[in-house]
Please model this.
Amino acid sequence: MDVRRPRGSGVEEGRTRYRWNVVPTEDVSPRDQPMATVAIIGASGRIGSFAAHAISHDPHVGDLLLIGRPGSEDHLDGLARDLGDSFAARGTDTRISWSVEMDDVRGSDIVVCTSGIPRQPGQSRLDLALQNGRIVAPAAETIGRVAPDAIIFMVTNPVDVMTSVALRSSGMRPEHVFGLGTHLDSMRLKSLLADFFRVHVSEVHTRIIGEHGDSMVPLWSATTVGGITISNLPAFTQIPMEEMIRTVKSSGEVIIRKRGATTYGPGEAIATLVRTVLGDENRILTVSSYIRQEVHGIGDVCIGVPARINRNGVFPVPIRIEEDEVRAFRESVEKIRTITQTVLEKLEFGD
Ligand code: NAP
Model:
């Protein structure tokens, strides 16, 4: 690792790494293949800085770029040095740099957007929509201009609405713009079910689709334990479904009330998704993505759905679900669509 200096500081930062030629070329390991650059916008914030640390564990990441606002130079420099020390302690040679110029996302493979106002206790994610839209729209416009082949990964809340704002403002392809969506909600439910059935979490598969918020929809019909659909298990009728979903819905709010912010859960979830893209893993995870008509013909909005994720981007998977689940999903979509349209109109007409 050799970089602890700002980009755009007048010091030209090349990507070339100079190495002693100590191994014959046929022994060059995959570690010497070109690796990815991940930029994090809003890196001075809580979720941005922890996500940077979590992402740095990914062996596909060669360069991490921390982006903040003008005025946060000292903070970003201190953060880069602290993270650099963690790489030294871990023994990895990830390079880290920082900038307060959005144009420096040029050349990034993934741009993770965490800039924005967080929820205060008692506030809903949707209360933030217009405020954060005004932060996300210009950032996305810049990414679309200077890094049109990158993938935008939206974290800022309300994440479904912000994913649409990023898609519209960047002008990028839908499969290159996605949001954290209900991935963490799905993982929270998976963990509760594993506790209930007293099995390892890897034995449980489940999904929550729809809004990352109050109208989220658990897909019980797509929930399995040990590969068996839960309705075929004797304990099915005893699952406290309502209570589990209440717990999932309120978990972010409870954490914010008790410690001010959610950090480690979303930070790890962000790192998982970055690894899924860069590792070309083709996993199906539940993220906010632009749907056309993949869920019973419902579409033209960004919302949490199962999507296949690989190096080319995020591709919603067409699904059939139970009637009551379709009804609930449709309601969730309409709620998000209305807010998205309002925010997009206000951003467009400068209200
Ligand atoms: P935070 O610690 O307050 O950090 C906010 C970040 O946004 C900082 O980097 C801040 O820069 C930047 N920022 C604030 N106002 C800005 C503006 N007007 N223009 C440009 N940048 C601005 O908040 P956080 O806890 O990290 O949360 C950040 C966002 O992520 C929030 O919207 C939150 O709701 C969301 N979030 C989403 C999930 C999810 O599951 N989707 C989970 C956690 C958090 P300065 O340091 O210069 O002020």
In short: The first strand starts at residue 36 and ends at 41. The longest helix spans residues 323-348. The helical segments are 46-55, 73-90, 129-146, 159-170, 183-197, 241-259, 264-278, 323-348.
